[in-house]
């Protein structure tokens, strides 16, 4: 038996749940399929989300799921394996859902540099986003590891939260102009390859270089490689933008007429509150698209 929905949402994070809330309140039949592996699971608290600042990420998802279910939305603990051209959504369990429209909000994976200590303390005192975590480590001895071309700019940004900042070029030597900016802002540049982020007593103690030099630090910022979890979008034939991410318009529409995408799966810079907003915007556009569909009989209450 195939369950039929107006909209199937793939991914139950901030974008997917907020979209489901808007659609369910618009009296659309909605299913949210989620495998239960949120990107921000290692973090103890979320920040920058009005009225929810400091809340554990799992609590936001719990409340969101409860709200969606309260309006009649279905929450399916499963993983989507295939989006078929006939709009059948095949799940890993073997269940099949039929959808008039599909929204993908599966997020991305942070691909971390293979430096000992980074993965162990990720989301605690090894961090990426200063807007998310800078306040919590303000005025402490901080470090930025040079792991991507964006790392020098990350260092200039992190300096806003602490005057005691060291940039370790590692594999991202700053251009002369960036190095001059760093020094002008009081950022120390310590050359050499980083061998380890030293962890002691369940906390970062130092950054160790390949020559054995240790520089005492209490928190480390590093830029991961953002890898979108967009396999189902790629398989559906969605066009990509120059960035390499799936291309969407201002409402989240992809190049496939019945398929939308929102959140980190198409925008690596989206924070939680941005992703939630993107989900709401996509939901409104999906609903309008259904309203304008030639066959109006299916929309009768």
TrEMBL record:
<dbReference type="InterPro" id="IPR036188">
    <property type="entry name" value="FAD/NAD-bd_sf"/>
</dbReference>
<keyword id="KW-0285">Flavoprotein</keyword>
<dbReference type="Pfam" id="PF07992">
    <property type="entry name" value="Pyr_redox_2"/>
</dbReference>
<dbReference type="InterPro" id="IPR050097">
    <property type="entry name" value="Ferredoxin-NADP_redctase_2"/>
</dbReference>
<protein>
    <submittedName>
        <fullName>Thioredoxin reductase</fullName>
    </submittedName>
</protein>
<keyword id="KW-0560">Oxidoreductase</keyword>
<dbReference type="InterPro" id="IPR023753">
    <property type="entry name" value="FAD/NAD-binding_dom"/>
</dbReference>
<dbReference type="GO" id="GO:0004791">
    <property type="term" value="F:thioredoxin-disulfide reductase (NADPH) activity"/>
</dbReference>
<feature type="domain" description="FAD/NAD(P)-binding">
    <location>
        <begin position="5"/>
        <end position="278"/>
    </location>
</feature>
């Amino acid at each position: 038996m195939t369950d039929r929905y107006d909209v199937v949402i793939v991914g139950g994070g901030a974008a997917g749940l907020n979209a489901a809330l808007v659609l369910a309140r618009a009296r659309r039949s909605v299913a949210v399929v989620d495998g239960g592996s949120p990107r921000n699971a290692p973090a103890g608290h979320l920040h920058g989300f009005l009225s929810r600042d400091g809340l554990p990420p799992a609590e936001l998802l719990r409340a969101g799921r409860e709200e969606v279910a309260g309006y009649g939305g279905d929450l399916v603990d499963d993983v989507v394996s295939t989006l078929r051209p006939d709009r059948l959504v095949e799940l890993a369990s073997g269940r099949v859902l039929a959808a008039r429209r599909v929204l993908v909000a599966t997020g991305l994976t942070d691909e971390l540099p293979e430096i000992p200590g980074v993965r162990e303390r990720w989301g605690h005192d090894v961090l990426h986003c200063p807007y998310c975590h800078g306040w919590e480590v303000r005025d402490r001895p901080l470090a930025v590891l040079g792991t991507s071309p964006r790392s020098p700019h990350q260092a200039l940004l992190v300096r806003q939260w602490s005057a005691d900042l060291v940039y370790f070029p590692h594999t991202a030597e700053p251009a002369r102009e960036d190095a001059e900016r760093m020094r002008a802002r009081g950022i120390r540049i310590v050359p050499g390859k980083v061998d380890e982020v030293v962890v002691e007593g369940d906390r970062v103690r130092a950054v160790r270089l390949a020559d054995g030099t240790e520089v005492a630090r209490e928190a480390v910022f590093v830029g991961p490689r953002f890898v979108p979890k967009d396999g189902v979008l790629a398989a559906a034939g969605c066009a990509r933008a120059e960035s390499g991410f799936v291309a969407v318009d201002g409402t989240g529409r992809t190049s496939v007429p019945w398929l939308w995408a929102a959140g980190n799966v198409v925008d690596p810079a989206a924070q939680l509150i941005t992703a939630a907003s993107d989900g709401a915007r996509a939901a409104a556009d999906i609903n309008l698209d259904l309203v304008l569909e030639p066959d109006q009989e299916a929309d009768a209450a």
